[in-house]
């Protein structure tokens, strides 16, 4: 059942993001609460479709299950870095929105729980309703692209570094590699310079959404991530970045965060991109679960 539950989660995450991608690319006046309702219906439909005979499957929102969060997923718009909630807000042209999907699949056999696993991934989208793009729009589009591109490059760099140093891969390697690539960009002649959110990051995931250890997205907080990755343990890597504001160009490349209820806001009020995937170490190589 453990193999199946992972496969179920992979397939459902693909379905959900395919649906979100379609809505973002084909609809206008997208309301966050309506989007959240669609995700809830997908969980309910999947629960029904996967249940059969004496097996009952429950698919539900992880943040609601574990934290009594007010929405099915996190919707973080513009300078909200993470943990934004669904609302009556309607996305407008030029917004960027991080959509962080986390759900739990629980399998019961004869009403006894036999398998349980959480799944977690995030994408950031640029909302485009018209062809005219401002300088801010172009900055945000590049921010999203750079975040995703650097995510994958840092995973490759982390593996190469551990191999070169003839040692086991550590959780901290990803954040150190990501930090290095951000700093390398910032020291170049490229137009945009970036900051990292060092206060929030990834985590091991399994029967609970957030398990030890913390998986950092920078070279900071290494003491919380400085242990070897064990084969078969699933974890999430999820950097959040922003373009440096003009008054921080000569300062360190780390964001200052402000908490406003559930919402984690960028103190500089610059827009934030967020990218997250589930990973696992198999045969000394990183593979993607989502």
Task: Characterise the protein shown here.
α4 (135-164) crosses α5. The chain has 290 residues and is an alpha+beta fold. The chain folds into 2 domains: 2-126, Creatine Amidinohydrolase (Alpha-Beta Complex); 135-288, Creatine Amidinohydrolase (Alpha-Beta Complex), CATH 3.90.230. It has 5 helices and 15 strands. The model has no long low-confidence stretch (mean pLDDT 96). 33% of the residues lie in helices and 29% in strands. The protein starts with a helix and ends with a strand.
Attribute tags:
290 residues, alpha+beta, Creatine Amidinohydrolase, 2 domains, five-stranded antiparallel β-sheet, four-stranded antiparallel β-sheet, 5 helices, 15 strands, globular
What name goes with the CATH superfamily of the largest domain? Creatinase/methionine aminopeptidase superfamily
Unreliable stretches, pLDDT < 50, 5 or more residues? none
Please write the string of helix (H) and strand (E) elements: HHEHEEEEHHEEEEEEEEEE
Strand content: 25-35%
End-to-end separation in angstroms reads 18 Å
Mean pLDDT: 96
Count of individual domains: 2
Question: In brief, what are we looking at here?
Answer:
With 290 residues, the protein is of the alpha+beta class. It has 2 domains: 2-126, Alpha-Beta Complex (Creatine Amidinohydrolase); 135-288, Creatine Amidinohydrolase (Alpha-Beta Complex), CATH 3.90.230. The chain is built from 5 helices and 15 strands.
Question: What is the fold's blueprint, element by element?
Answer:
Layout: H1 2-26, H2 32-50, E1 55-61, H3 62-67, E2 74-77, E3 80-82, E4 96-109, E5 112-126, H4 135-164, H5 172-186, E6 194-196, E7 202-204, E8 211-215, E9 234-237, E10 240-243, E11 257-260, E12 263-266, E13 272-274, E14 277-282, E15 285-288
Antiparallel strand pairs: 1-4, 2-4, 3-12, 4-5, 6-10, 7-8, 7-9, 9-14, 10-13, 11-12, 14-15
Helix pairs in contact: 4-5
